[in-house]
């Protein structure tokens, strides 16, 4: 601690609790092989085309990127069918969340709404901005009480954050219902739909609000290259938003927050249709297999449209998490989301899924024997 004066908001903060890293677990348990199914990363790794481009472009790393990432924004505009003037690229979509709060929400005046539980970045960045963060509990089945969100919004509500498909449950809400919500909110209130996992939803067209973008003036959509595109470590995400707002974000954004290699990698993976198709195939088959097998082991598995599954095991969740760690499998306990009885596992490749299921079955069997 220090007696130097700092922002009073600092008093309430604890560090972000990330998924554990492979090296930490190798060291802790003396293991040579550890698999990580904790942070919803791409189970195929980095696209081969991206790896080739990064090798080729490594010699560019001494240069500043072009401020505002115009080449990538133009490519995305073509890809998504929106004007590039409505796109802002960031150092992960986390940066766009932070910028939206700082540009739109007035400290000490405005409030921000989200569900409970929700992605912790909304909460942390809102409070650091000195903006009141209000949460509405999800329904018992993790579906969205959209009516309550609409009722809770007032003239000082700057932003409403909804993650769709949701993290950590995997629940997805039809886009039409979110479009209705946007229309019901006060005119000044922006509905921010965080579509970090939208590519994994089936059918995607039923769930993405992108088709509504041109007709709803208070809609913002967040996307990321961290999940389906396999670039979490390079940090690249973007927002689709009204042009006036994109213009404001671009005026205050740190000019080089998207580095030159992240931009090149993003451009390459947008071209790599085979990698994307294979990712979707692996995630969709793996998701079904994991859900079926976990249910057969006596877990309560929640329906997921994302690249992960949330489940309640038939034993203490924290103990199962720790027993899996000891066996070299990292998944995510959800105590930090206020869900101590739940776990979240990212869909892995075929070998990782098999390993996770074998180890889980082993722990559950041992537990059952001790208790019967
Ligand atoms: C992973 C994730 C993101 C993406 O974050 P990046 O900063 O782009 O890596 C955004 N929102 C949610 C809910 C996520 O789970």
Walk me through the structure.
The chain is an alpha/beta fold and 372 residues long. A hairpin with a 6-residue loop joins strand 9 and strand 10. The termini are far apart. The strands form three sheets. It has a seven-stranded mixed sheet, with helices on both faces. Strands 9-10-13-12 form a four-stranded antiparallel sheet, covered by helices on one side. The protein has a two-stranded parallel ribbon with strand order 1-11. 40% of the residues lie in helices and 15% in strands. The chain has helices at 22-29, 48-57, 70-80, 93-104, 120-128, 146-152, 175-184, 204-207, 243-252, 260-271, 273-296, 317-326, 350-370, and strands at 35-36, 87-90, 111-116, 132-137, 157-163, 190-194, 219-224, 237-240, 300-301, 308-312, 329-330, 332-333, 343-346. It is built from 13 helices and 13 strands. It is globular. The model has no long low-confidence stretch (mean pLDDT 96). The structure holds pyridoxal-5'-phosphate. Pyridoxal-5'-phosphate is lined by residues 40, 92-94, 119, 163, 167, 194, 196, 224, 226-227, 232, 237.
Major sheet description: 7 strands, mixed
Question: What is the ordering of alpha helices and beta strands?
Answer: HEHHEHEHEHEHEHEEHHHEEHEEEH
Strand fraction = 5-15%
Strands in their spatial order, largest beta sheet: 2-8-7-6-5-3-4
Q: What distance separates the N and C termini?
A: 50 Å
């Amino acid at each position: 601690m220090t007696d130097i004066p700092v922002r009073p908001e600092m008093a309430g903060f604890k560090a972000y609790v990330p998924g554990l890293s492979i090296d930490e677990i190798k060291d802790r348990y003396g293991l040579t092989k550890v698999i990580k199914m904790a942070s919803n990363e791409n189970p195929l790794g980095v696209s081969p085309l991206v790896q080739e481009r990064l090798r080729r472009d490594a010699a560019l790393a001494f240069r500043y990127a072009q401020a505002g990432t115009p080449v990538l924004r133009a490519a995305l505009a073509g890809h998504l069918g929106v004007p590039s003037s409505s796109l802002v690229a960031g150092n992960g979509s986390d940066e766009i969340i932070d910028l939206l709060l700082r540009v739109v929400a007035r400290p000490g005046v405005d409030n921000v709404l989200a569900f409970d539980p929700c992605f912790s970045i909304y909460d942390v960045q809102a409070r650091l901005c000195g903006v009141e963060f209000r949460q509405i509990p999800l329904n018992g089945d993790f579906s969205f009480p959209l009516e309550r969100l609409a009722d809770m919004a007032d003239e000082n509500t700057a932003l409403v954050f909804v993650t769709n498909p949701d993290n950590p449950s995997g629940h997805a809400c039809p886009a039409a219902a979110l479009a209705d919500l946007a229309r019901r909110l006060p005119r000044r209130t922006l509905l921010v739909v965080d579509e970090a996992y939208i590519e994994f939803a089936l059918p995607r067209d039923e769930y993405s609000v992108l088709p509504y973008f041109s007709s709803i003036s208070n809609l913002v959509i967040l996307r990321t290259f961290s999940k389906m595109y396999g670039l979490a470590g390079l940090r690249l995400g973007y927002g689709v938003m009204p042009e006036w707002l994109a213009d404001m974000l671009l005026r205050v954004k740190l000019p080089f927050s998207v580095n030159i290699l992240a931009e090149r990698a993003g451009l390459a993976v947008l071209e790599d249709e085979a990698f994307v198709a294979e990712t979707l195939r692996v995630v969709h088959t793996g998701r079904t297999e994991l859900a079926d097998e976990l249910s057969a082991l006596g877990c309560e598995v929640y329906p997921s449209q994302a690249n992960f599954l949330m489940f309640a095991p038939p034993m203490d969740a924290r103990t199962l998490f720790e027993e899996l760690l000891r066996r070299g499998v990292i998944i995510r306990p959800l105590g930090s989301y206020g869900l101590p009885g739940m776990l979240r596992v990212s869909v892995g490749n075929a070998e990782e899924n098999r390993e996770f299921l074998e180890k889980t079955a082993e722990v559950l069997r041992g537990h059952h024997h001790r208790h019967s």
